[in-house]
Predict the structure of Exodeoxyribonuclease III.
Amino acid sequence: MKIATFNINGIKARLPRLIEWLEQKAPDVACLQEIKTSDETFPIAEIEAAGYGAIWHGQKGFNGVAILAKGAQPIERRKGLPDDPDPTHSRYIEAEVGGVIVGSIYLPNGNPVLGPKFDYKLAWFDRLIGHAADLWASELPVVLAGDYNVIPTPSTDDVFSERAMASDALTQPESRSAFRRLCNAGWTDAVRTVHPHGPVYTFWDYQAGAWQRDAGFRIDHLMLSPAAADRLAGAGVDKDTRGLEKASDHAPTWITLRP
């Protein structure tokens, strides 16, 4: 089973790239973030024509998450986190697909630091950790996939330049501490487990020639419960997708699970 996460950065603007990627890479499950469209305007017809069923939690112009399943209809479990600190933001959707529970996550960016947006980021992360604990206790295979907006470490394995990102919410001690809390609670960082050394970037900014300079960082993560981690067979990043015309600034990031 191949499960991917892809911050599409506007599903209408990137729809040709999304359909192209689905046809070429054929993930069994695709978790999308920043679809930036309302529930009513989600392009379900085009996605179904590509062979995928879908559920989504939209928001006009901002945020928005979705889960696609190849040749199947995802079974929706919930939209939004329990006790979400701001339920007007569409940042979480959860489904069952092929016996695996999958959550699509768009964690708040948090910039600027030391303000309400950063406080909201940390509060939202706290709610996610709480919900993850309930999912972990179920002992079911669970994959929490998405744009976490956290660079886990200062190493060049995770960020092209810690100095350049030093004032960003993605690198703050509080952000990294929350990510470590999730790991310490028993969740496996799938990509880093398969690729323990070397740069594995998932995002390259549109500015300052970041893509051309490979000035990227790793913020798209697939976190696995023990029952899912036991089945982990592979992981990677479809980096070439980032270099296409009118591409998202994120590249699809994926895992494979054994039956």
Remarks:
- The chain is about 25% helix and 25% strand.
- The first strand starts at residue 2 and ends at 7.
- The chain has a mean pLDDT of 98.
